Amino acid sequence: MKQYFVYILKCSDNSYYTGVTNNIDLRLSQHQSGKFPESYTYKRRPVELVFFYLFNDIIQAIAFEKRVKGWSRKKKEAIINDNWDKLKE
């Protein structure tokens, strides 16, 4: 069964980047190496993996990624710090 990860990276400028992948190690390596010069993280390296959540269904993973991308910094930091209850605030 394939697994999918929704992940959050903390960039060198303290911004957050949210993405989805089926290979978290490879994707993190691509972000760190600057493989894609047009990407958000390219000029904000180094990056640090601060959160990931595992899914078995790509549709659910993409839906969660889109939801997280729309969240405020405060909400993202709540899940990064494993304070899921604070999402209601």
Catalogue the unreliable spans. none
Query: What's the β-strand tally?
Result: 3
Beta-strand percent range: 15-25%
CATH fold category name: GIY-YIG endonuclease
Order of helices and strands: EEHEHH
What is the CATH C-level name?
Answer: Alpha Beta
Query: How far apart are the termini?
Result: 36 Å
Classified in CATH, the superfamily is GIY-YIG endonuclease
Which architecture does the CATH hierarchy give at level 2?
A: 3-Layer(aba) Sandwich
Question: Any overview of this molecule?
Answer:
The chain has 89 residues and is of the alpha+beta class. It has a single domain (4-88), classed as GIY-YIG endonuclease. Helices cover 34% and strands 24% of the residues. It has three helices and three strands; from the N terminus they run ββαβαα. It has a three-stranded antiparallel beta sheet, with helices on both faces. The termini are far apart. The model has no long low-confidence stretch (mean pLDDT 96).
